[in-house]
Structures are given as C-alpha cells and as structure tokens.
Queue: 4 jobs
Job 1
Amino acid sequence: QYSTGSEIRQKFLNFYAEKGHKILPSASLVPEDPTVLLTIAGMLPFKPIFLGQRQPEFPRATTSQKCIRTNDIENVGRTARHHTFFEMLGNFSFGDYFKQQAIAWGWEISTKVFELPPERLVVSVFEEDDEAFAIWRDEIGVSPQRIKRMGEADNFWKSGPTGPCGPCSEIYYDFHPERGEENIDLEDDTRFIEFYNLVFMQYNRDADGNLTPLQNKNIDTGMGLERMAQILQQVPNNYETDLIFPIIKTAAEIAQIDYHKSDDKTKVSLKVIGDHIRAVVHLIADGVTASNIGRGYIVRRLIRRVVRHGRLIGISGEFTTLVAETAMQLSEAVYPNVRQRESAIKGELQREETRFLETLERGEKLLAEIMEKAKGQISGQDAFVLYDTYGFPLELTQEIAEENGLTVDIKGFETAMEEQRRRSQDAHETIDLTVQGSLDQLAEHIHPTEFLGYTLLTSDAKVE
Ligand code: ALA
C-alpha cells in the first residue's frame, strides 16, 4: 500500500509506541562520544547503555535516527539503495525483550502495518543461530527455503572493530518472486532488498577480538526508511521516493533537463546531488562547517561533489542553495533545526561553492595551456592532474578537448588513476565508528596531497 516517507516514519514509531516503547527524537549527527566521527546507526546514541556504562531511562525505545555513512560514497547514485545520508527507524530493548519478541514484532510490522505480502519476504539468520532459525520456521511459519543461513560478514553486526555486537537476522523484500524459490540468492540486488535488520546485541568485542557477553541481552534494529519507501512507493530506486525526488527535480529544472528522459550518467549525477545535499544540510544544521579535517572535511567533500555533478549536467552558475532549499522543505517538519539554521546552511554552501568554482576556473586556465602544447592528444597524466588537483572530471576535460579538436588519452588517465588506487589500501568491509577508522576509510578514496592541501596554493582543489 502506497505510503509517503512521513507516513512510514510515523507508522513505525506508533507501532512500537503501542508496544511500550518510548519515542525519542533523533540524536545529532555529531555524536556525544568524542571518539566517534558521525552517527552511522540508530544504536549509536545507546552504545553506552548496551555497554552497561549508562542506565537506560526506559527499557524500550524507538527512534527515527538520521545517519551518515561515507564508506560507500562511490556507490551513491550508482546502485538503487546506497546513500551517505539516510534515516534509520529502530526499536531498542535494553535488557528487556529479546530475540523471540523482536522477530515476532519485526514480522508483524512488516506484514500487518506495511502490508508486505509474506510470500514476498525472505529472511536471513546467522549461520550458527539455530534458535533464530527455529523461531522463524516454527513460530512465524516461514518456510525453511525462505530462511537463509549466512556467515559473519552478513549476519553478525558490529559497529566497529570493538564494542557491542551480536548475531543478526535480516528481512528482505523480493521484487521478482517469479524468478522462483529455488533460485534465492540474497546477494542479488536486482531481486532483493534488505530492509530490516534485527540485531541480537549480546557481546562486547575487545581490542584483541575476544567476545564477552554483555551484562544484558539487548535488541538493536534498523529499518531503512528510504528502502521501505522504495518498496511501498514501487519506484525503481530509493532516489525516486518522495523523500529525495523533489530535490532531484529542482536540480533537473535548474539544468533544464528532464530526469526521466535523461541517460544513466545524468541520472547518477542527479542522484548524487539529491543524496549529498541532504547530508550537507543536516551536517551543517548539526553544527559542522567545511574544513580540511574530520567532519568538516566530509562537508567540504560532499559540497564539491554536488558542484561538480552540477557542472556535469550542464549547470554553470551557483545552485547549491536552491537544491538545499528543497531539501530543507522536505525535512523541516521532522527536523526543525534545519530551518533554524537556514542562514548558516546557505551561507556555508555559498562560500564553499564560490571557492570551488574559482578552483575549477584555475583548472580551466591550466587546461587551456595544456591544450596549446598538446599535439592532437592530451596526455593521461595531464588529465589526471586536472582531475586530481583541480577537481576536473575526465568527462569535462574530454568535452573541452573535443571542442578544440583534441582527444584525451583515456588509457593513460586510467593507469594514473589505478596507480593512485593502488597507493591506498584495500577496501574495508566493515563500518568503523572510531574517528580514526572513519578518516582512514575516507582517505582510501583520496590522494594523499589532499591533506597537505592547506599548505599549497591548490588548497581547495580536488574532489572525487
Ligand atoms: N545497528 C544495525 C544496523 O545498523 C541495526 O544495521
């Protein structure tokens, strides 16, 4: 049944309020815990409670928590469901109810409140968790073919290398049941979307990797608001839900294009703008300002990506405050601090955008010089310097080169890019809550000179 994003949020909170949960407001994206960079999950504000360091005021709570994750930033706009900013709906038990009740309510809200047909649902459990398997099969009545046992990478949730963790059970929605019960592969994201994660939070992992039982057995869950909206609004991806699409529409109007008639590349750019501007609006609303370190660096990088993707779709002037306005209109009813911080948000955007556009202009000058010397082709190395130092996407260099009767050595560019990639480390599998961990993950995607940036002329150059 069609539901707006706001209705989904409200239905979730109301359901758990009726089951004795206290509705708490979303915490800030900037965690109280100084060792953590950003709020990456609904459980984060409750971490001290899970660890037994703080007494809970209520045994059960429910929230819609704004979150930011930058570990998957490369996938934003390219897959149907990756975001930097998203809202996580959660129900939490602090040593109160546990596995059986969490599963029963998880199923009830999915099938009765959101009215998802049970035959469209598949669940996963941690491979060693026979108890969860039995609850799904015997108490809920899910057929064993639709209960998948998965390993630690998928079904043992942790917020970082250390801290509270536990086995989990996830509920997936099947967009293509006609493909058959025998072919269930939950990794296939053209068919399945995982929308609800139930974590049986019962261990603490120490720095040596040892698991010790927590004082209490707790429940931590996360339902992706944007994902549930995609399912209920029957749109092809999270970006086309009412939570994000109006922002995309604003950007498309400024670029004088039509999203639905655009090619895939243009759609990716519009989605990146839609995603990142939400993140930027909420980060600045929560007090973060652009800089070259820590959270401020994330804001700066997100703004630059918005500007760069704006240029890719043909926007030449300043536009970020206009798309931010739409993002603010979408969220101000639930997050009033967004409007209260309007002048900070718009001022920051304007400053950063102007500076970055200046950098891009310097790049254009350099490109003109390069083109003057080039004999038919711009070298891959030159194209890479433009990309890496001046934030020039390859497409932009190519376009300008073409206008001047030149080509670009794409292979050479890719080699230079590959070399840089090799210099950074292997991708991390897990989300790391620590400040250093988050920065390390971010650093994987950027050139080391970025951090030397502020001592150089090109201080505000480079964007991915
Ligand atoms: N903390 C769990 C998650 O983020 C619910 O998926």
Note: The chain is about 45% helix and 15% strand.
Job 2
Amino acid sequence: MILWNDRIVKREEVQIDIEDRGYQFGDGVYEVIRVYHGKPFQLDEHLERLERSLNEIRLALPYPMEDFKHLLQQLLDKDPVTDGIIYLQVTRGNALRSHAFPSEAKSVVTAYTREMPRPTKSLAEGIGAHLTNDIRWLRCDIKSLNLLGNVLAKQEALDNDCGEALFHRGDIVTEGSSSNVFIKKDGAWLTHPANHLILNGITRRFVMRLMADLEMPVKEEAFKIADLLNADEVIITSTTQEVMPVVSIDGEPVGNGEVGEWTRSLQNAFERHIS
Ligand code: PSZ
C-alpha cells in the first residue's frame, strides 16, 4: 500500500506524472523513519526535521503536519512491518518543466512501509569505510531528494569493498554518504557540528544523549583526516545502521582493528532503548 497525498491506495493506483518536479529536478525532501516491533521510532523528531527541510526549500505539505502523522500511522496499520522503515517524500508537484517555482503546482506526498531487518552481522563485526572527497552542495543540512553526490560516494565505497564512504572537505571529515560519523580520541567522542555541511541525524542526536547517559564526553567539533586515521574508535550512525562500528579505513585498521569498548557500551544502550 502507498500513501499518495491523502489516500492510502494500492501501488498500481498511484499516478506520478513524468513532470513531477521530484522526478525532473529532485525538487523535494524526504525522511526514513525506523520501525521497531511495529512502532515508529523517533517519529516526532523525524517530522520536525521534515518541517524544517520543507521550510528551507519553501515547500508546504498539502495538509497540517498532525494530519500527515495520522496518515502515516494509518499506512503502518494497513501495511504493518515488524522491523522496517517508513519512507516518505514530498515534491513540488507537477508543472511544465521550468526551473522556477510553478505558480499552480500542488505538492505531491508519497510514503510506504518496508520490512528491513537490523544489520546484526555488521553491528557485531563492524564495517570498512572509504574516504572520499565531499563534492556535494553546501546545504547538506536539508534532507533533499538530490542524492547524486551521496550515491556516487556509496558506489565508490562498495567498489573498494567498503560498507560506507566518509566525506572530507579539504582536511575536515564531515559525514558519511548516508550516516553521521563520530571518532573517539583522547577520551572523548568528536563529531562534526550540525551546520550546513552535514545532515543533523536523528540517530546522531539520539546517540549523543546515550553518550551523556553513559558519561562519555562528546564534543561537536570538526576533526581532521589525521584524527580519523589515529582514532581509538570510529562509529557511523543512521536510522538503519544504528551505532555501526568502523573497524578499518581504506584497509588500515582503526585502533587494534576490533570493535571498541565505548562502541559496545553505546550499542548495548541503544538496544535497551529499542527492545
Ligand atoms: O536505509 C538507509 O541506508 C538509510 S536510512 C537513513 C539514511 C540511510 N541516511 C541518513 C543520513 C544521511 O543520508 C546523511 C547524508 N547523513 C546522515 C544521515 C543520518 O541521519 P539519520 O540518523 O536521521 O538517519
């Protein structure tokens, strides 16, 4: 089933126009919400970020956010998942192709649910990461449908037998292609400040609260490639990757190459919250 504007319909019934601006310009925003045991996780936080993304690109939902929240719950009731995701996107709608905002177009909303098991094997063993130049635009804080820079980086990581690409702008490490990154160095976690160069991840914020609970110092402070390569522990965080250990970077081990102690404590705390 698909939530299509204000109706929940069969997939075959959805009609997306070839002149939808999401299709032609990537003119829209999206969210991926985790579902654990059939219930959305951090739903309000995701909807708040959606509201922010919409405002930043001067787009509006066709109805109040509260109605959208109810529609998403109805979608989940009609198409339940145990451990999965809700994907949603909002585009600037259909109009004759022309860059400037159309005067008449109505925004188009779509959402669906999908089963997605937790990545338990990689969570236990960790993944390899690949450093790559951050070629994206300068509004990475907007969860925009334009993901070409992220797509190219992720493929480059996979081509190098790595699970994630880590972006750097000059000497500064920003974030992953679909995740935020933290390093543990000198007894504290460091992560890039939430400015225009990164997406302020819902998981990033949640994990920072876990760090505080566990009395692990955490600083939102830019760090360099050399700091990353010399870190004791490295993790990436995202809605689907949770607290994912990075155990090597371009083939070189992080620390002793094993999942670190602070990382394990964070993973345990994360599991307690979602179980
Ligand atoms: O299914 C997937 O692989 C997902 S679900 C969410 C993401 C990937 N990525 C979110 C993301 C991102 O795309 C960038 C560029 N930076 C950070 C993140 C992490 O954001 P949250 O924690 O909100 O998912």
Note: The pocket of PSZ is lined by residues 32, 150, 175, 178-180, 199, 201-204, 237-240 (CB under 6 Å).
Job 3
Amino acid sequence: MFNTRVKVKELLATTPQNQEVTVMGWVRTFRNNQFIAINDGSTNNNLQVVVELGAYDDQLLKKITTGASLKVTGQLIASLGKGQSVEVKASTVEVLGECNPEKYPLQLKNRPSLEYLREIAHLRFRTNTFGAVFRIRHSLAFAIHQFFNEKGFVYLHTPVITASDAEGAGEMFKVTTLPFDNPPRKEDGAIDFSEDFFGRATNLTVSGQLEGELGAMAFSEIYTFGPTFRAENSNTARHLAEFWMIEPEMAFYDLEDNMNLAESFIRYLIDYVMKHNREDLEFLAQRLAEEEKQKPVAERSELGLIEKLEFVLNNQFERITYTEAIDILLQSPAYKKKKFQYEVKWGIDMQSEHERYLVEKHFKKPVIVTGYPKDIKAFYMRQNEDGKTVAAMDILVPGIGEIVGGSQREERLELLEQRMEELHIPAKEMWWYLDTRRFGSVPHAGFGLGFERMMLFVTGMTNIRDVIAFPRAPKSAEF
Ligand code: 4AD
Ligand code: MG
C-alpha cells in the first residue's frame, strides 16, 4: 500500500515532532552521499532527506541519482541545516525506479534552456519552471469553472468535430476516413464526401461559439471550455494549432455587458492565482526578472510579474474604438519614424506590433477595442448603424496583444442572412443556427478567451509552447 505517504507540500508545513512519515518522489540532487533533495510535484520546494553516513550500503547509495524515484520512511525533525525548517531523517530508503545518470537528459546542474526543454517535454514537468507553470495552469482552469459556476452559467460541452467553419477563416483540419490515395469522386472530379464517415465534409472545430449560442438561447448563460484547432500556418510565440478556449455566451447582453463580464472574469482569474499560487508566482517572477536583466534597458518591462498582475487587479481597462486606435497609431512617434513594419490605415486588421504599441507604449495597460470594420470580422457580429463597423470587442494586454475576441451577435434574421450571403456562407447548411433568430431571437453576446494566452499573461512566460503540456504547432506534434 502506497497511500500512507504524505506529500512534500504537506510535510513542509507540518510541525516536526519526530513523527514517522513516508515520503515518495524523485531525486533532484544528492549531495555528499548524505543529503537528498526530493520532489513530488506538490510544490516547487524540495524536501531534504538525510541519510546517515555509513548506515547504508554503497550499492544502494549509488542508485540515488538525479531523476531516480524513492520511497523513504523516517522521522520528521526540525532541520539542522539552513534553507528549510524540516527534514526527514531516513530510516529506510527504497529505490523504486533507477535513473541512469549517463542517459538522463535532465541534469539540473546548468540550467537547461526552454528550447531544449521543449524537446524533452515528457520530462520538463520535473523542472521548477514547468512545475510552477503547470500547477498554475491547473489552478486557472479550476478558477474558470468556479467563476462561471458562482454566476450560474451552464458548462456546455460543444463538439470537437463539426461541419461548419465558425470563424469563416477556412483554417480547418479536415476529419475524414476516406482513403487518401483513391478517394471516391463525383462526376465532376470533386471528392464525394457523401461516402465519408459522417456523410459530409467535416473538420476539427475552430470555436464552440455557434453551438454555444444555441445553448444561450435556452439557459441564458453558458460557457464552453475545451480544445479548438486552427490550421493557420503561424509559427509564432503566440499561436498554437491546438489551443484551449473559454467561450461564454449570454442572452440578454449587449456589447457593454459583454465587456464588463470579460473584464471582471480576467480580474477574478488573476486574483485567484495570486491567492492560491503565490509561491509559484514568486518563483516565476524571479525567473522573469533574471531574464529581463539580459535584455537591453529600453526593452525591459517596467513592472515585475507580480506588480503587473496587481496593476491589472487595481485598474480599469482602457476602452477605445477601433477608429480611435487607428488615429492613435497614425499620430504616434513610432508611425512617424516608420517603425511599424505593416501599413496603418482605417480598415486594416491590426498586427501584433500595432496592438502592442497601444497597450505597452501608449496606454500602458489592458485595452478593449470596439467597433471594428465589418470586413475584417466574422459574419455573426452585430452590424452597427454606420453600415461599416460591427459590435466587436478585442481585449489587448501588454506583452501579448489580443487575449480575448468577442462581440454582440447579430440577432436580426434578415441582416444576418444578408451578411452570410455577402460572405458566401451557405445558409442552407446553417439552418439550425438561423433557427435561433427565427424562434425567440434575443440580443446576445459572448467572447472567447485564449487559455494559453491568459497563461502567458499570468506566468510571464514568453512562448506559448511553454504553457501547454504538449504543444501542437506547424511541423511539431511530438509526444
Ligand atoms: O478571436 P478568436 O478567433 O474568436 C473566436 O474564435 C470567437 N468565436 C470567440 C467568441 O466570440 N466566442 O479567438 C479567441 C481567442 C483570441 O483572442 C486568442 O486569445 C485565442 O482565442 N486564439 C489563439 N490562441 C492560441 N493559438 C491560436 N492560434 C489562437 N487563435 C486564437
Ligand atoms: Mg480574434
């Protein structure tokens, strides 16, 4: 039986009274044939296990190497050394799994680079950095459910396989069981998907929103939280081919209600992590501070990680229109000095450099941009009176750019049908979506928060592949 063991986190918080305890975990270091630092993932802090010199057989001691797994029984005592308050004086040490030091790729002596750790993602959870990142990821996921549960939202599981392209961007992974070498064809040579598994062409979902809207039309307020897939060939530090998204959808909400919810949601998540993951945040803050020191002074961020999160907790997001955002960019020194790589004019889909200028240089805080041109946004967004813009909102944050995309939805059937026709979206196949506008249509709104982008913001990590366990990106699907 293994369940008598106590986790390291708990032991470190226990008053030592020479009580007998059992601890299990992996060896981080073994010094002087005497001091084992053991970690079981419950906290970044290791537990020191002391083996009495001469009391153990050499053969056993040789097997206590970095990465080996141990079962230790002993007394919990007040630590004699510095750096920890308690330690375990071992009475028995059992090596559960050996770890050949010649072959183990995770030697912690020289701090391994994040790039290298990405190549051994199956082991990187055992480092302090990834321990902290993934405990925070867990907490954040839990906080998301708690936030919506407290507000009475229904968690709706939307399908992973769909036949529609919610965002209309055509960046979809196909799902098929047809043979690649010789698929059935119609008379005109096109592939005959009627013979495919689902009797039609299907793909992995890019968003649960359309199905989410169906739920909101009955439960009033729902949210989804699941993986979404995009076959966009963006090899950047902010894009994944498989990422998780939280998509609340609310009936009886307009754009302002939507912004208010998104803003309080982000604040709630930050507050939760600040309260529940302090130790891990402090570790990551330290890590980031060291990384910042490597950069030229002009590129360093003004605030440390914890200060940045506190700032977001205590300050309202700036709210501006797209038109105002473009004006700010056109007036900016960066524009005048031709620092932007991409063109700036009304109608552009703002690039990351523009978004980051607004939040990092101009406002120095998160910004919600509303009223984007309809031509750069999805078909379902509610058209504004001006005939040019839609009731869209994006939330931009320092260091990342877009973290949330959302809108009030077009609830007026004729206007929606007209827009779909303009964009060549087959209304016939979307009959079920249009039915929501036929049978008791209501003003409604929603947004999508990219979970990994939120993770980047909270952890201060800079590459999105370092905040998801097994990243999927162009030319990369190991593990
Ligand atoms: O702006 P997007 O494309 O919006 C939607 O999908 C809407 N259906 C959401 C809604 O209104 N219910 O994506 C939403 C968010 C982005 O703001 C970004 O944070 C994240 O999803 N995101 C990505 N994250 C990682 N990798 C990618 N390739 C991403 N694409 C979008
Ligand atoms: Mg977007």
Note: The first strand starts at residue 20 and ends at 31.
Job 4
Amino acid sequence: MQSAPGSESSPNSTSATGITPWLGSQLQKIIDNIYEKYKDVDDGTVATYIPELGKANPKDFGICLATVEGQVFTAGDWENEFTIQSMCKPFAFQLALEQHGTEKTLKHVGVEPSGEAFNSIELDQRSGRPFNPMVNAGAIAVASLIKQSPVDAGVEAFVARMGKAAGRELRIDQSVLASETATGNRNRAIAYLLLNAGIIDEEVQQSLHQYFAQCSMLVNCKDLAMMAATMANIGNQPVTGEPVFDFQNLKYVMAVMFSCGLYDYAGNWAFEVGLPAKSGVSGGIFGVVNRQLGIAVYSPRLDAQGNSVRGILACKELASHFGLHAFDFSNVGSSFMQWLL
Ligand code: GLU
C-alpha cells in the first residue's frame, strides 16, 4: 500500500535529469513483481485471423517503461519483436494531422467513439465519415492521406519516422504483410465503402498497402515505450533529443487514444487506467503518461475484446500503483515517483 504524498522522506527524489539510482531500483522491483505476478495467467487466445499472427508464442510477456528523461526499465520478454498492428493508428493519425492539418484531416475521419467492432464495415451515418482513426475504416482513410507515390515511399516515410521515435531503425515483417494482404478482404470491403463515400481517392490498393504495411512493422516493448515516451515528451525523442512529432497535434492524437484506443473496452480503460493508450491484435498495449512516461506491454493472448489479457492486468496495476490515471489526485504532471518516496 502506498503512503500519502510527501508523508515520508526518502534517500532520493526525482529531478530534472531523471530518476536517481535508488528510485530506479524501486521502480525496477515493482515492474519485476508485476511480471512475476501475471506471467502464468493463461486466459485468452492468440489472434489467428491473420494466419501469421497465430505463430506468436503465447508465453511471451514483456514490459517496458521509458521516462521522458530517457531512462528505461524492462521485465520479461521485452526484446521479443511483434508487429505493431493497430498500435500504428495513432502515429499514422499524427502524420496525417501534420501533413494536412486538422480541418482537412477531419473531413476524412471523425473523432467519435464508434461503439462498433474495430473492423465494422460502417460509416458514421450523421457525418458520412469513419467514426475515428482507431477503427479500421478511419485508419484506412488516414493511410490514404499519408500514402505517397510510389507507394513504397509512403511506407518508408512512416517506418523511418517511427524509427526516429523508437530510437533505432525499424522494419516491416514481410511474412505478416503478405499474410495480411492475402486475407484482408474485410479491409478491402471497408476501403471500397470509403471510395464509394468519397472519403478516399481511387488509389484503393495503394491505401490498403500503406495500411497493411504500417500494421506489419516490427517493434519490441522498448521501441513502443520509447515511441510513447516521445509523445509524452511533447514530441521530442527522450534519448536523442530529436524533435520527432509536431507537439501541436499530439493532444488531438492522445485525446482520441483516450476515448477510442482499447476497442470495446475503451470506456472501462479510461475509467480504470485513465491513460491515452492503444492496443493491437498482436498483443501489445502502449500508454502515455503525459510529460512523464511511455509504457508498453506485450503478451499475445487476447481477451474477448481483442486486448492483451496480461497487458491489461499489468497496465491496471502500474496505473494504480503509481497513481498514473490522468485524473488521479496524485498525478501532478511530472513527479509520479513521489509514490516511492
Ligand atoms: N491489421 C489488423 C487489421 O486490420 C489490425 C487490427 C488490430 O490490431 O486491431 O485487421
């Protein structure tokens, strides 16, 4: 049980330059404990509707926290790579906002939670647009906005920017891309619905390729946590210091993540965990503690809503342990580590 803020003294405290070794070791212990506590939970099943995803090891479980000062704390299989899947959607939305501005982007995609499945073949009846950029229809509309000619240039631009946020070069898993392309008829149906509604242009195959390739990009927990920490750090990569994302748009992206990031669990997530976050069918979840932390968890067994079972458990525990909920009285913007004092 944590003590009230400031009620105890500690040998150390956080500072502008980061977490001191003593606090770091406390934080590491907590992550290790969360890993141990949930590593044997074997509820849920690995996604198989994209056949290549079915090859994931159901035992995998990795956790990574990255601070905005560039410190990294890891547990378990944090180095194992997996495809980013739907977790590419907030980043693609960010790029669309940067390239086209809010007004034009929002002509192609809304920002309302849908209450429908992520892959529903449906538009918002009132606006004629996809509900939001976190469902497939919205993400394909966004992919259409950021694609380039030739199509590989748009994919490369996306992967390069994500690599800058992660702090290392990233790449596409060609087997997953082939598997998605071969079996993605539902997404093809969505794309043609978008074409019919005038939301995307006639280069339907290019838009789909951009979307499938984005989803097939490989990351590990550290990459994702760093990408999230770059968001938390107003767009600047914590280690390299490089400006990666235009900070003016990050608030829009995080707002949509907050309300729509966890499939049909988004409301519960906002209630209980209270962080802008995104999950994907590969079993990853990443969350942003604004101005403080990036969090990533990977474990491929999914619950009925399509979210990682161990990922949800780990994030809930991290959030409650450190008071990370955006509206928690203890979240004062830059000093979550006070709970260890
Ligand atoms: N590529 C996947 C699809 O479009 C992404 C799904 C997800 O992670 O939600 O079906």
Note: The domain at 45-340 is CATH 3.40.710.10 (Beta-lactamase).
